[in-house]
Amino acid sequence: MTLMESARATAVRPELKDEHAQKFVLTLSCREQAGIVQAVTTFLFERGFNIDEHQQFDDSLRETLHLRTAFSGSPSYTPAMLEEEFGGIAQRFDMKFSFHDQTQQRVLVMVSKFGHCLNDLIFRWRGGSLGGELVLVVSNHETHRAMAEAAGLPFIHVPVTPDTKADAERRLLELVDEYDVDLVVLARYMQVLSNDLCRSLEGRAINIHHSFLPGFKGAKPYHQAHACGVKLIGATAHYVTADLDEGPIIEQEVIRVDHSYGPSALSTVGQDAEALALSRAVRWHCQHRVLLDETSTVVFR
Fold this sequence. Notes:
Layout: H1 3-11, E1 22-31, H2 36-46, E2 50-59, E3 64-73, H3 79-93, E4 96-100, E5 105-111, H4 116-127, E6 132-139, H5 145-150, E7 155-157, H6 165-178, E8 183-186, H7 195-200, E9 205-209, H8 221-227, E10 232-239, E11 249-256, H9 263-286, E12 290-293, E13 296-299
Parallel strand pairs: 5-6, 5-8, 6-7, 8-9
Antiparallel strand pairs: 1-3, 1-4, 2-3, 9-10, 10-11, 12-13
Helix pairs in contact: 1-2, 4-9, 8-9
């Protein structure tokens, strides 16, 4: 039995397998060193918690460790209490860490005229498989008001022109605060966010791009793809940064095509890829499965 297996066995307490137990998730990143897993599992065991899921990645190139542990136990604890009590361990190993409970992430979706990603997110949310709670749809067009309101979601039209862009972004940040939003999802929102807004939403805004980055930028990407004779159609979901379409990648989806696919057929296939990649990225983020690692990510599926 390895040290990690031993530590996990120590922390598992069968008597605590109670469907009413409070569930939590711990995520952390730090420099790779001995004793981290033991410290974590001992901390949980001493407080009567049961480990439900444990994943870790030891990055030998960067000499860092990334860890996600889901655990359950006493409902008398809160994430804030756990963070305070874990502080000594975190300081010893110089950890960047956070605790989360079962509270669902509140998601604001931004959309323009393409509605396939919004429709897919709504479908998965209503079916209980999205992992987060949709609370608001914001658009620079009125096109999808009926879709949002039919799902019981408030729809707010925030028009954008070169002269009103700054006001529109201020309004967005007001809505993020007003609706207590945890995550902003750009579901084919066809406006470039300013550097200031990107920095304000760092680590809590996800975009979907219609190809494997950075290919086929600009207008009519599927016409460009057809002209190049592509054999793979892809989509990339990534965190939003000030570097346009170059943020840390969370998920990519690919679908094989051939010469018989015209631009319209490629667009249809591409929309499927976009919806799949985006919904996975949103779900994994909301389940605290994505850890930022400089310009990259570690995703514990």
